[in-house]
Predict the structure.
Amino acid sequence: MANAIALEKGLKIAFHQAYADLLKSPEFDIIKSIAMMAPSTAASEKYGWLGDVPAVVEWLGEVTAKELAEYDYTITNKDWISAMTIDRNSLDDDQYGMIMERVRELPRAILEHRWEMIEDLFADGTTELAYDGSAFFADRTSPNDNLLAGNGSDTVAHIQTDILAAYAAQYNFQSDEGRKMRIKMDTIVCPVEIYGLVLEAVTAVQGQTSANVPAMFIKNVIPLPGQSDTTDWYGICTTRGLKPFILQTRKEPTPDMDYNKLSKQYVFFADGRSNAGYGFFQLAVKVVNS
């Protein structure tokens, strides 16, 4: 039993170290750039505050405060687990080092799962609802249409044209009060199949010197695997406190271990509670290419 206690302690330390390293990694920084990290204290969280921010007006006389619009948008937490078995004979055969390496990979699986939740939000964005009751990517009333028709993703020239059109469309989005929001697209998320073409198009766009093209406005191109639509791509603004997506966490992944005497196996696992949902739709546009 003493050996089992020492094993569990060592594996938990290895897990926590690997998980802490991933939270500081460039991969996780990319997730944080497009998804707001939202702590949760209940089974679900209501994001009724998503919506318009009152405009700045000249202060003349008594101030009349505008209440934020109240929306009924809720994200419910789900339980997740990642587990691995450790055969007791492996420990007897001095395979502890290899077991530690496997444990250090569990946080990587958790990070990949968080990416997969975000990827699903992209894929389902034309059917799943945003806080305003419309699909996240939808033909909203002009000028807030964030589902745009593209010219094609088969050539650099087509992608260049659509990048500039998407930038202009998002920049002209208006608030509920009719004021321009001046949202600046700085990131493109695209299927991995057209990643090379988009990179080339972004480089060419950045190299232009026309006063009508903001220099170096695309800061990042993120490849998105496993998309059914391999010609569509997304323009994202990542510079604001609000994000187009929400990554909600009720319980951070917590490691633990069980032992089954009959099977002579340890089960090391990490379980947590979290979910992902849609945030501020104005910060994302989808360019659809048939």
In short: The chain is about 30% helix and 25% strand. The mean pLDDT is 87.
